[in-house]
Amino acid sequence: MAADSPTGESPSRGKRADAQRNRETVLAAAAEVFVASGVDAPIRRIAAQAGVGMATIYRHFPTRADLVTAVYRHQIEACAEAGPSLLATAGSPFDALRQWIDLFVDFLVTKHGLADALQSDNERFAALHAYFLDRLLPVCALLLDASVEAGDIRPGTQPYELMRGIGNLCVGRDGDPRYDPRRLIALLLQGLQRPDAT
After folding, report:
1. How close are the terminal C-alpha atoms of the chain, in Å?
2. Structure-model confidence comparison of residues 117 and 109, the more confident one
3. I want to staple 87 with a disulfide (CB 3.0 to 4.6 A). Which of 43, 96, 177, 178 is the partner?
4. How far apart are CA 161 and CA 140, in angstroms?
5. Pair 46, 72: CB distance under 8 Å
């Protein structure tokens, strides 16, 4: 039986922790590179951003589709986990909703080009879309319900229609510097508010 390391971790556990850290670093770097250069950016650029060798990336993500899928799932998880946290710390439920929608818009930008990258693997993309809805619709519903209960917004807005509307507003952003979807999303949110809401 192998002796524990001085830190109290077994060597294999330490290796697993290092591998997990490397994976997280690669995902964060890939997300940044995808935002800046699209999902077809060279893998060597992602490796340089992450400070790891290309072999490390291929060990975790054998194909580009594996990497893009993992980034997409990682971003979904971050967005899903942010909702309850914002609700607990923001000044009001509506502030939490507004901040969460800001993160959601960032997420939509990050996933730009995903459909093209996974075009040859429709089944994988369908599974990701289902995962996206399963994880984010309940969070959006939580924030909407809390905002209604606090009297910040009118009742009746469905999470799916809000997320779909925001997604549609973000589509026009590509290649047009005169178009700012965030301005229209702010107007959309303003329209949800009760006239007497402070």
Report:
1. 65
2. 109
3. 96
4. 11
5. no
- Extract long-range pairs of 102-109: CB within 8 Å, 24+ residues apart: 102/182, 103/78, 103/79, 104/79, 104/136, 104/140, 104/163, 104/166, 105/166, 105/170, 105/181, 105/182, 105/185, 107/75, 107/76, 107/78, 107/79, 108/166, 108/167, 108/170, 109/35, 109/170, 109/173
- Report the greatest alpha carbon distance in the chain: 69
Query: Do the beta carbons of residue 148 and residue 155 sit within 8 Å?
Result: yes
Contact yes or no for 97/144 (Cβ under 8 A): yes
Specify the residue for token string 């995808």.
34
Q: What is the model's pTM?
A: 0.79
- In the predicted structure, residue 117 carries a pLDDT above the cut 70: no
pLDDT of residue 164: 93
Across the chain, what does the average pLDDT equal? 85
Residues 6+ apart with CB under 8 A from 108: 166, 167, 170
152/92 Cα distance (integer angstroms): 8
pLDDT at 106 over 90: no
